[in-house]
Amino acid sequence: MNIIKTKNYDEMSDITLELFIDIINKNNKNRINIALTGGKTPLLFYKKLIANLSKIKDINKIHFYNFDEIPYKKDLSKGMTIEDLEKIFYLPAKINEKNIERMNILNWKEYANHLEKDGGLDLVLLGIGTDGHFCGNLSGVTKFGDTIRLINNKDLEKNISVPKLDANLFHSHYVTLGPREIMASKNIIMIANGENKADIINKIINGPVIEEVPSSILTLHPNFNLIIDEEANKIVKV
């Protein structure tokens, strides 16, 4: 595990950008497969990445994957994750549609085989929830041996880190890559900022590897990079 300490959110985003581009540019494959996270934590990173896309040697050989999806009832081919990634990265970065590999609740059974045929993931960018979740792998519903699967939204009702979903708007299930697919990635970058993440960062660094803290499994990955700001580092103080 490589722990990178930064002063604040801005520096965390800068360091993430440097590492992200460095990993890509050192990869000599004809195709590079990357899974990206949505949410608030990476917003500044994406702005900086869009402004620095020219530093990537060949953006056209990168294929982008979503590692989870919360589908809408009205259109099962699309959901909250893809909608977010389109808004914050794909559209402003003008990513070619043929380079976006979209997982949804209709194609998830074929998605794992598709990903394997594509050569597997080379890099995953993750955030972390206050319960230690990554992707859609949450405390109380995830086993370390899980692969890509559907999860019933009802199983999340006792998880305080997850916003309650409007049953009139969203489908009853969501889909996520499991720990097996994420751990099979060649590189993982996880970013965390803010005092509300300090307790969980302490748990994954100093605590046991347990399913109640799903991200603790990532500390066993040979190329796991954890980038945190001072507030997220308040308890563990690495």
Summarize it.
The chain has helices spanning 9-25, 43-51, 80-90, 108-117, 179-183, 198-206, and strands at 2-5, 32-36, 62-66, 68-69, 100-101, 123-126, 149-152, 173-176, 188-192, 224-228. It is of the alpha/beta class.
Primary descriptors:
alpha/beta, three-stranded antiparallel β-sheet, 238 residues, seven-stranded parallel β-sheet, Rossmann fold, 6 helices, globular
What does this structure look like?
The model has no long low-confidence stretch (mean pLDDT 94). Strand 9 (188-192), helix 6 (198-206) and strand 10 form a beta-alpha-beta unit. Helix 1 (9-25) crosses helix 2. The chain has 6 helices and 10 strands, in the order βαβαββαβαβββαβαβ. With 238 residues, the protein is of the alpha/beta class. The chain has helices at residues 9-25, 43-51, 80-90, 108-117, 179-183, 198-206; strands at 2-5, 32-36, 62-66, 68-69, 100-101, 123-126, 149-152, 173-176, 188-192, 224-228. The strands form 2 sheets. It has a 7-stranded parallel β-sheet with strand order 1-10-9-6-2-3-5, with helices on one face. The protein is globular and about 45 Å long. The chain has one domain (2-228): Rossmann fold, CATH 3.40.50. The protein is 26% helix and 17% strand.
What integer is the average pLDDT?
94
* Adjacency order of strands in the biggest sheet: 1-10-9-6-2-3-5
CATH class: Alpha Beta
Instruction: Report the helical percentage.
Output: 25-40%
Q: Low-confidence runs (pLDDT<50, min 5 residues)?
A: none
Helices and strands: which structural class?
A: alpha/beta
Largest sheet: 7 strands, parallel
Q: What is the CATH T-level topology? A: Rossmann fold
Radius of gyration: 17 Å
Order of helices and strands: EHEHEEHEHEEEHEHE
Q: Say how many strands there are.
A: 10
CATH architecture group name: 3-Layer(aba) Sandwich
**Shape annotation:** globular
